């Protein structure tokens, strides 16, 4: 072995990392295509071109693999970096970018709509990442959870129509049009005065 060749443990670590990456990639694609219940360890292993026992060796169970595959960072923008009056459009544009570049979110939405574990995973992502942003921009932090839920209803609803169900009119909209349609609604949910219930 020369000085430039990696040591055996280094080679093994690189192989391990490559195997984990292949499993996660296959799992994301399979969960996105089939949903949680129909996606099987055997199918994921076949997609990753490895033995099913290797999937279980690295992740232990389908539930643990799902959690790892859908460990997602929404990378939400810092609200102090822009005018709060633009938060609606900024967020809608940001989410569109995430949906269009990240199959993890598509898998999460597909599974979350049909499976309790998937729904709980989605809830935790939005609770831990969207809720803190809502607290920073809304007039009353005590209302932040309601406002974040309303915001999520808009971005998830559009994602469902555009990327999962693929309604032709939703697919046909340009990114700019979606921002202009949804941005003001998300803005109102996050920053408008809390409505007085109709008597």
Protein described:
The chain has helices at 8-38, 41-48, 52-59, 62-69, 87-101, 103-112, 116-137, 144-164, 168-172, 175-191. By secondary structure, it is an all-alpha fold. It folds into two domains: 8-69, Orthogonal Bundle (Arc Repressor Mutant, subunit A); 79-191, no CATH class. Helix 1 (8-38) packs across helix 2 (41-48) and helix 2 (41-48) packs across helix 3. The chain is elongated. The protein starts with 7 loop residues before the first helix and ends in an 8-residue tail after the last helix. The mean pLDDT is 88.
Q: What topology emerges from the helices and strands here?
A:
Blueprint lengths: L7 H31 L2 H8 L3 H8 L2 H8 L17 H15 L1 H10 L3 H22 L6 H21 L3 H5 L2 H17 L8
Helix pairs in contact: 1-2, 1-4, 1-6, 2-3, 5-6, 5-10, 6-7, 7-8, 8-10
Question: Features of this protein?
Answer:
single chain, 199 residues, mainly alpha, Arc Repressor Mutant, subunit A, 2 domains, 73% helix, elongated
Mean pLDDT: 88
Radius of gyration over C-alpha positions, nearest whole angstrom:
20 Å
State the shape. elongated
- Number of beta strands: 0
Span between termini: 82 Å
Report the sheet with the most strands, covering strand number, pairing sense and barrel closure. none
Strand content: under 5%
In the predicted model, the low-confidence regions spanning at least 5 consecutive residues are none
In N-to-C order, the SSE pattern is: HHHHHHHHHH
């Amino acid at each position: 072995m020369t000085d430039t060749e990696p040591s055996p443990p280094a080679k093994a670590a690189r192989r391990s990392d490559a195997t984990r990456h292949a499993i996660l990639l296959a799992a994301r694609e399979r969960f996105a295509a089939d949903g949680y219940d129909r996606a099987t360890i055997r199918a994921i292993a076949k997609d990753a071109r490895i033995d099913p026992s290797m999937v279980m060796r690295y992740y232990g169970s389908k539930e643990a693999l799902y959690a790892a595959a859908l460990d997602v960072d929404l990378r939400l923008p810092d609200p102090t970096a822009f005018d709060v009056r633009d938060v609606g459009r900024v967020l809608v544009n940001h989410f569109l970018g995430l949906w269009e570049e990240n199959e993890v979110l598509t898998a999460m939405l597909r599974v979350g709509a049909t499976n309790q574990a998937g729904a709980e995973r989605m809830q935790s992502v939005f609770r831990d990442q969207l809720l803190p942003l809502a607290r920073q921009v809304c007039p009353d932090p005590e209302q932040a959870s309601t406002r974040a839920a309303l915001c999520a209803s808009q971005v998830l609803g559009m994602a469902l129509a555009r990327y999962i169900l693929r309604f032709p009119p939703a697919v046909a909209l340009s990114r700019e049009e979606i921002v202009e349609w949804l941005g003001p609604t998300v803005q109102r949910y996050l920053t408008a005065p809390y409505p007085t219930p109709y008597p």
